Amino acid sequence: xxxxxxxxxxxxxxxxxxxxLETLIDVEHIMAINFNKNPNKLVYLYLFKSPGLxxxxxxxxxxxxxxxxxYKFSNEEIESIQSNLKNLQNMSGASR
Length: 96
Known about the structure:
Layout: H1 3-10, H2 14-26, E1 30-34, E2 44-48, H3 53-94
Antiparallel strand pairs: 1-2
Helix pairs in contact: 1-2, 2-3
């Protein structure tokens, strides 16, 4: 299933799916295989690594959930900071 399919099925943004998949690859819960001869360079196959597959699936689901919450929190924090900066700019412009 492509990343867009994951995003649509889970009801989250494509960017957040990408963020979570990258972290799963970093901790070696999954590996991504790009099909080099495929003209569509965006096609990857994500595979769970073998030993303890059931345990890794459960750990991966929990990890994905935590990373998604971390991603959402970070974005909310950025939006809050941007909003505060905009308010400060508006206040300094109004006082002139």
